[in-house]
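Reagents: none. Just compute today. WD repeat-containing protein 75.
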Amino acid sequence: MAEEGTVRVVRCGGSELNLRRAEFSADSKYIFYVSGDFVKVHSTATEECVHVLQGHRNLVTGIQLNPNNHLQLYSCSFDGTIKLWDYIDGILIKTFIVGHKLHALFTLACAEDSVFVIINKEKPDVFQLVSVKLSKSSSQEIEAKEISFVLDYINQSPKCIAFGNEGEYVAAVRDFYLSVYFFKRKTTSRFTLSSSRNKKHAKNNFTCVACHPKEDCIATGHKDGKIRLWRNFDDDKKYTYTCLHWHHDMVMDLAFSVTGTSLLSGGRESVLVEWRDAAEKNKEFLPRLGATIEHISVSPAGDLFCTSHSDNKIIVIHRNLEASAVIQGLVKDSNIYTGLMIDPRTKALVLNGKPGHLQFYSLQHDKQLYNLDIIQQEYINDYGLIQIELTKAAFDCYGNWLATVEQRQEKETELELQMKLWMYNKKTQGFVLNTKVNMPHEDHITALCFCNAEKFENPTLVTASKDGHFKVWMLTDDSDIYKKAVGWTCDFVGSYHKYQATNCCFSEDGSLLAVSFEEIVTIWDSETWELKCTFCQRAGSIRYLCFGRLTCSKYLLGATKSDILCCWNLLSCALEWSTKLNVRVLEPDPNSENIAAISQSSMGSDLFVFKPSEPRPLYIQKNISREDVQWGVFVPRDVPESFTSEAYQWLNRSQFFFLTKSQSLLTFSTKSPEEKLTPTSKQLLAEESLPTTPFYFILGKHREQQDEKINEALESELIQLPLTENIPAINELLHTPAHVLPSASFLCSKFVNSLLLSKETKSGEEIPEDVDMEGKESNDSDEEKDFTEKIEDTNSTDLGEDLIHQLSKSEEKELRKFRKVDYSWITVL
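Predicted 3D structure written out:
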């Protein structure tokens, strides 16, 4: 239960994975990347997230392995701190407070107690490379104010800074300049390319730089697609460079292999190029990576590469140029035309993805589930080409049907319009195209919605268009004589005085259909399609329209472009109330009567949660975002919350998500991400980081349960069994390589003796001395009586002490069998 005043806006996922280069662990088992305010640790083998390193209060801008301890990771952020992590356990070790806004981070093995960061001091567009000394203090938070200047007038991007030849020099590029600083000599060499405006030198701009790990060689990428290899740059006059050219557009990033024998390059062609021995002829390609390559990383072991892409994707690549793993985040499309939807089957967030696709994104796991290709055409990356846009999409209430609209308009009179109906196939577990309608309307489709009432046997779809009509589409028999196929056909066409239809929505029970025609709202009977009534307030064109739900189903709400929010009563056919509000998002909660409205003001975006039947809002939160909020959606909770405060009860059954103009996905929560992790999930995260040996699968998962049982046995049982994991013989057999072990005959006696019960485990207080434990000639009944009598005598000697647990008959039989075993054969060995 959350306390009042604890609900706040939090980033729930969808952050950029391609903001900075990803990093590998020393053994290539893990890959690290920045994700908003967090650093995420993934397994390179399974693609699963092992840890989320949380602690920064602003955007993380750099990560690097600790060169002196490969089990630790450095990270820097805009919050002015450098944090040291133990990524195996997901624990924050230390925080170094620098105080400046940090834009990038670099580490060197030769600089044990220092790291390099990019900061801006005076002017916002002038950046400096400085060295920060990290003191070795035992405290967790340390002031790191000792800063040494290295280079000035550099680019803030870490792709424009590179350290070479084991830290002897650092190279930086910006515009048409290359600067090389030598640490030992403390001198700087500068080289300039021609910046004339003729075609030959128009695109000489530097875009990235990489340094050879063993030799004095610098590789630079340029806007014209060329790669220059610089040598002899320690002399301003004798320097030379050679050119490599394959990319037709700018080179986005460069990286040398660990040994320096290969150079990797990538750009907008979505192709990873490997230049072997820095030769023009020796090239290898990995094509069709899906999107522009933003960053390239190489693992310290040299067996893996990694590329970060513009579609918020990270691809792990083997040394032989074969993709092995893909980590896909929320794809940031240029425009989100479809809005935010929830797939009723997977509870995934659905919206525009890469061009021509719908992406299904898991909010719980912060990863993309899959893409659905709607347009089904090859995408051509040409800036002057007018592409086919996916503009509308809608699900029915069961997730059985999906309706999409795609359009392309090169001229005002040349409109290409298609509507597609997709049916969910249980066998393939995906959507299959069922019906395709060319030109369903004569103008742009402005809205579409399904009738989600359960009483309707046949699914019903309504589309509204600027051509002044709305159309009702019904699922009918579209088969031959066998009647095994169904299809969608137009059942009714409606209009109102040739006004443009802008919005449409069904009531909760499906009995009424509301269609807005500019400033007028019309109400239609869904059974006869007769016009029942109209509402006209002359308050501007209707921008959003929605019905109330549950006890508020008699209300209809509409938001106009002239910043008026109206509520009509369908029983009295009159305006219930209206208010001045610049509504940008109007979203009803499917599980309650609540409606969320987000308005835009000069200070930012504000949230209002209200019920149509009550004049006062339930919850108001100002400045939820400084940006414009474009879309919002309620997501039903799997486990309802239990807020008692009236102001927060709207969060009990559903959670509200919203998308800003910069496509940041935010939500309202009462718990931080650390608090959401239960002890069980934290234990699972820790276990996932352990090496998965065969013995781990046998013993690792149940070790804690075994320890608890053993502790209970020590307190209650008379006889203690030996712990197999502490027996030296077993440890020797399991942990020693087979080729160095002694012979089996030598180990047999030691191994069998270790399994025997030790007499030292039986104390005198627990078992009387006069009990004959070695009697072999007495029968079973006599032994049973004698054993029981002795235990009873022992229990009755001292009533003040704790009662000793009496063995059951089955346990006594097992002990008798164990005593009768003949171990004399061991003496022969």
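Residues 20 and 62 are 7 Å apart (CA to CA).
Action item: order primers for follow-up constructs.
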